[in-house]
């Protein structure tokens, strides 16, 4: 079947099958704090916003992505403090920004001890009044 016969291919490039397989694998093996955050983001639980987890943005796979807000949310483990990883993360963030995406980064520690603050920061980045009674 030709690509033009596939309705899902209209207007967007197809993601490499290896990248899709890797994203599926990452979804199955999410670290504990990513699962914890996902439980709050899934099913439009945060302000009615739809997030995807382990979403391909070739050549990368981002932890969480809200298409409507063009927002990437990354949860960084302890290795993200190492200089090589910091440089990689900076280059990755610059690449995503060049594609018109905004990137929020949180540490696993922040998700573990201050999940409500993380959610409020995400909501604020999406322009939601965080003082409204029904933020989450």
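Q: What amino acid sequence fits the structure above?
A:
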């Amino acid at each position: 079947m030709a690509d033009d016969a596939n309705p899902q291919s209209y207007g967007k490039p197809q993601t490499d099958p290896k990248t899709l397989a890797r994203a599926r694998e990452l979804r199955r093996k999410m670290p504990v704090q990513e699962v914890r955050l996902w439980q709050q983001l899934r099913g439009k639980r945060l302000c009615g916003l739809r997030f995807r987890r382990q979403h391909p943005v070739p050549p990368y796979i981002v932890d969480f992505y809200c298409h409507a807000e063009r927002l990437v949310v990354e949860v960084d483990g302890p290795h993200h403090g190492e200089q090589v990883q910091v440089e990689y993360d900076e280059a990755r963030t610059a690449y995503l920004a060049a594609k018109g995406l905004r990137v929020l980064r949180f540490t696993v520690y922040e998700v573990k001890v201050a999940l409500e603050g993380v959610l409020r920061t995400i909501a604020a980045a999406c322009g939601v009044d965080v003082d409204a009674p029904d933020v989450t």
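Q: And what stands out in the fold?
A: The radius of gyration is 16 Å.
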